[in-house]
């Protein structure tokens, strides 16, 4: 049975049991402050469990893309070193929202596994929750009784809270669970040791394949449990492990989920995969084929690699794959991007985003590979210098500070530094490195640390967002909670009627005022969490239940919504000018400017930018009225031609924004007429990533300010140049400056020639070398020319020139070629540069360093005299 057939049989089975089959949610979460990625199948249904939203159907089934690389659920370090851990994996799941519960969930699971898939019953074991006295949780007797009708009692195992009480995170929906384990060992192995002894003991052939979670509780911030409004079923079956069981393999990597990718790696690398767990080459291949799946799906869902947040996690996964392939597969050129086509062929039918975004995914991965391989090559040079310096100092341990700097600042893998050092008979200070790493993590945690208390509910009432129609409204607080962070103590409030737009869709959240006759509070930010619009205020009202007036900062909102509306016009104009391959890949919409990322593989020309700008401004001048469809079926919106963005999760009903021929699904706030935008001006166009261009632009008040500032600058220039023809005056100045520069350069060369003659006879014999140490006010370019000339003409020499040109300290060191094996210019200058509070580098024969402390040149001069 192929993996495609296994996946389809699961969906078909639950469809026959009256489950609605829904597509996977994006792997990257954009509007959930508690999670970066979907780390389980239930993530997209969290609001249903908490009662914030009404389920689209009482029974649902799907296959969900999941990623576990951060936080409590983190499998990254295990990937490649065993047969079954993965970063990205599929979770097959069936769900009941207040419909069936334990009895039917258990019956469905047993029937599917034993009758549809045909797994021998004697190979299965189940676990149930044994209870936990510390939380007054009783043994799950119901689950035990239901399982007795399907499996012998000696195969039902009590499980502790760690294994059999499922929790999504530190807080949120949770409940007892019942795991199904499969024993894939040979008959001979089973005869020696019973599978009962191996369940939940990390045996690679006795593995959990399905977890049935009976969602009954909500874990609060204070760690107490409260009953959910209804009982739900949340199941998750590991697709890769299921394929291993049904295809008779002993490793997930031996199934056809991974073998096509492994075959491609073998072809590209020339290395043969043997499946040996301890073999570094095989570990590298497993890492590569696992990580390419995670990165490809994340990029296809709209998350580009970056230096922060979810983008940093994706970059880290990709770089881990590149590092392993570089070290153990000998791959010194980009090649991971070539695996994307194989992944498309395997999974494109079930996950169409891979088909549609394949070219972009490949280009982004290739660009990241090229960049990180350059980092590795540059790092190798730095490591070699560090090794030479360590050996020169008669040390055996590389300095911790420099090793950590290589890792933290330059992104060079610490294990690669370790390997290279060991080859030279050196080591790194493992404890010191770990301490530096932990200190960095603690600093990062301290910066982002936030304590969130439980909600205090004043009234169980659904909130009402009125911000599309009003800038202010009468309201009261329905719930609040305290928040503590490094900036102090604040409160998050939910309002009965809120005009404040919550951050989302690229648009910043509203700020404003919450006030009544007695007191007033500043709204610092507005966000959305679990379907609730939450505003942050700088204090708690004396009477939290009193009536207030919520007032949006109108000036900022008007500018933000003008920028948001213009992104829609910009999107349409880009597609008209560049082609329909253009798709939005990210945006930021604030009151001061907008940023728009889009798929396109070439830098835009000035002509294209002008044409786009003109098209947008033409739409603004047309005074096109907003057509808003707040609750339109998604199919109808798509049939009308609305643009939907990859990586966004849409419901059955959507909001569509239309300005003439521009139609997009969007939840943001917008102008009522394009004339309100005023004017649109592109400030810059640049590369955001491979295949992604970025436009930054302004509109409205900021565009008006921009042109007023330009007029002012032109007027000031005209006055300064004493000419109304500013352009001609500047051209004349440039011509005069070029002529003067030529004269200055000629004079510098003459002066440098004179210095060479003077300095040639100034070398002194110092041990095994001739040494020249000189101070000068010559510029850096002239000094460089002189040093290269001297080290060529004066054998067995070291030349040190200390310059104070333009009031800036610069040190230059030259080592003649016949001394290069004994002295290193880079090592010498590193020590001298400390005196001027600077740094620099170069090669063994030539190095320069600039600094901040001009007075330190004298100390550097004295130190150089004793080289």
From TrEMBL:
All residue ranges annotated as the Alanyl-transfer RNA synthetases family profile domain in the record: 1-709
Give the cofactors, semicolon-separated.
Answer: Zn(2+)
Q: What is its EC number?
A: 6.1.1.7
Gene Ontology MF, one: tRNA binding
- Coiled-coil blocks: 700-750
> Which catalysed reactions does the entry list for this protein?
tRNA(Ala) + L-alanine + ATP = L-alanyl-tRNA(Ala) + AMP + diphosphate
Q: Which GO terms describe its biological process?
A: alanyl-tRNA aminoacylation
Q: How does the entry describe the domains?
A: Consists of three domains; the N-terminal catalytic domain, the editing domain and the C-terminal C-Ala domain. The editing domain removes incorrectly charged amino acids, while the C-Ala domain, along with tRNA(Ala), serves as a bridge to cooperatively bring together the editing and aminoacylation centers thus stimulating deacylation of misacylated tRNAs.
Function, as annotated: Catalyzes the attachment of alanine to tRNA(Ala) in a two-step reaction: alanine is first activated by ATP to form Ala-AMP and then transferred to the acceptor end of tRNA(Ala). Also edits incorrectly charged Ser-tRNA(Ala) and Gly-tRNA(Ala) via its editing domain.
**NCBIfam families per UniProt:** alaS
**Recorded family membership:** Belongs to the class-II aminoacyl-tRNA synthetase family.
What name does this protein carry? Alanine--tRNA ligase
The source organism is: Chryseobacterium taeanense
Tell me the name of the encoding gene: alaS
């Amino acid at each position: 049975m192929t993996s495609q057939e296994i996946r389809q049989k699961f969906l078909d089975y639950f469809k026959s049991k009256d489950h609605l089959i829904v597509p996977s949610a994006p792997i990257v979460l954009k509007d959930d402050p508690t999670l970066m990625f979907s780390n389980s199948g239930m993530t997209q249904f969290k609001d249903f469990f908490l009662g914030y939203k009404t389920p689209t159907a009482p029974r649902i089934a799907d296959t969900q893309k999941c990623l576990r690389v951060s936080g409590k659920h983190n499998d990254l370090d295990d990937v490649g070193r065993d047969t079954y851990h993965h970063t990205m994996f599929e979770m097959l799941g069936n769900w009941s929202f207040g419909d069936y519960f334990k009895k039917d969930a258990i019956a469905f699971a047993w029937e599917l596994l034993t009758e549809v898939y045909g797994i021998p019953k004697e190979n299965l074991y189940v676990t149930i929750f044994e209870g936990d006295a510390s939380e007054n949780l009783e043994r799950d007797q119901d689950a035990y009784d239901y399982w007795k009708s399907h499996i012998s009692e000696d195969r039902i195992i009590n499980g502790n809270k760690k294994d059999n009480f499922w929790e999504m995170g530190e807080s949120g929906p949770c409940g007892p669970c019942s795991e199904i384990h499969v024993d894939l060992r040979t008959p001979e192995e089973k005869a020696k040791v019973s599978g009962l002894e191996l369940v939940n003991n990390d045996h690679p052939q006795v593995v959990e394949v399905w977890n049935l979670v009976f969602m009954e509780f909500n874990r609060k911030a204070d760690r107490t449990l409260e009953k959910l409004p209804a009982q739900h079923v949340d199941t998750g079956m590991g697709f890769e492990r299921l394929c291993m069981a049904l295809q008779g393999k002993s490793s997930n990597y031996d199934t056809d989920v991974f073998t096509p990718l492994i075959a491609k790696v073998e072809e590209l690398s020339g290395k043969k995969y043997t499946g040996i767990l301890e073999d570094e080459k095989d570990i590298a291949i497993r890492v590569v084929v696992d990580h390419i799946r995670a990165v490809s799906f994340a990029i296809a869902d709209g998350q580009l690699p970056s230096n922060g947040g979810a983008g940093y996690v994706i970059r880290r996964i990709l770089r881990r794959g590149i590092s392993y392939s570089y070290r153990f597969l000998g791959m010194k050129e980009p090649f991971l991007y070539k695996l994307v086509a194989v992944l498309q062929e395997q999974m494109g039918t079930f996950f169409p985003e891979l088909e549609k975004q394949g070219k972009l995914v490949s280009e982004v991965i290739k660009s990241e590979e090229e960049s990180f391989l350059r980092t590795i090559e540059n790092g190798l040079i730095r490591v070699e210098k560090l090794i030479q310096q360590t050996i020169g100092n008669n040390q055996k341990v590389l300095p911790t500070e420099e090793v950590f700097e290589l890792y933290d600042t330059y992104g060079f893998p610490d294990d690669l530094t370790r390997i290279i050092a060991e080859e030279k008979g050196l080591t790194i200070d493992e404890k010191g490195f770990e301490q530096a790493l932990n200190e960095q993590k603690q600093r990062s945690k301290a910066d982002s640390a936030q304590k969130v208390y439980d909600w205090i509910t004043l009234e169980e009432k659904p909130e009402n967002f009125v911000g599309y129609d009003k800038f202010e409204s009468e309201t009261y607080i329905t719930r609040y909670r305290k928040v503590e962070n490094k900036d102090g103590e604040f409160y998050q409030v939910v309002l009965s009627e809120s005009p404040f737009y919550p951050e989302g869709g690229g648009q910043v959240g509203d700020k404003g005022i919450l006030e009544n006759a007695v007191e007033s509070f500043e709204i610092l930010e507005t966000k959305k969490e679990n379907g609730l619009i939450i505003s942050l205020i700088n204090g708690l009202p004396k009477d939290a239940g009193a009536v207030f007036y919520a007032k949006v900062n109108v000036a900022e909102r008007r500018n933000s919504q003008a920028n948001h509306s213009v992104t829609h016009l910009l999107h349409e104009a880009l597609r008209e000018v560049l082609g329909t391959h253009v798709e939005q890949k990210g945006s930021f919409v604030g009151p001061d400017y907008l940023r728009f990322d889009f798929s396109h593989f070439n830098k835009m020309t000035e002509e294209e930018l002008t044409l786009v700008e003109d098209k947008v401004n033409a739409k603004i001048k047309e005074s096109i009225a907003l057509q808003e469809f707040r609750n339109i079926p998604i199919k109808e919106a798509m049939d009308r031609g609305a643009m939907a963005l990859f990586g966004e999760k849409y419901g059955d009903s959507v909001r569509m924004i239309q300005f003439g021929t521009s139609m997009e699904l969007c939840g943001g706030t917008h102008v009522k007429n394009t004339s309100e935008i005023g004017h649109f001006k592109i400030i810059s166009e640049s590369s955001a990533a491979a295949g992604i261009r970025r436009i930054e632009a302004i509109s409205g008040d900021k565009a008006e300010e921009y042109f007023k500032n330009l007029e002012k600058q032109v007027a000031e220039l005209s006055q300064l140049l004493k000419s109304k023809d500013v352009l001609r005056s500047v051209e004349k100045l440039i011509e005069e400056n070029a002529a003067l520069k030529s004269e200055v350069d000629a004079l510098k060369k003459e002066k440098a020639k004179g210095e060479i003659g003077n300095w040639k006879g100034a070398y002194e014999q110092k041990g095994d070398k001739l040494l020249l140490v000189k101070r000068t006010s010559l510029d850096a370019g002239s000094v460089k020319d002189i040093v290269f000339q001297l080290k060529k003409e004066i054998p067995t020499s070291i030349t040190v020139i200390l310059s104070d040109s333009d009031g800036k300290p610069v040190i230059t060191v030259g080592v003649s070629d016949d001394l290069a094996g004994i002295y290193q210019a880079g090592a010498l200058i590193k020590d001298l540069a400390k005196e001027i509070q600077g740094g620099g580098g170069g090669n063994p024969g030539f190095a320069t360093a600039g600094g901040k402390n001009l007075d330190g040149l004298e100390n550097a001069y004295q130190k150089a005299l004793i080289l």
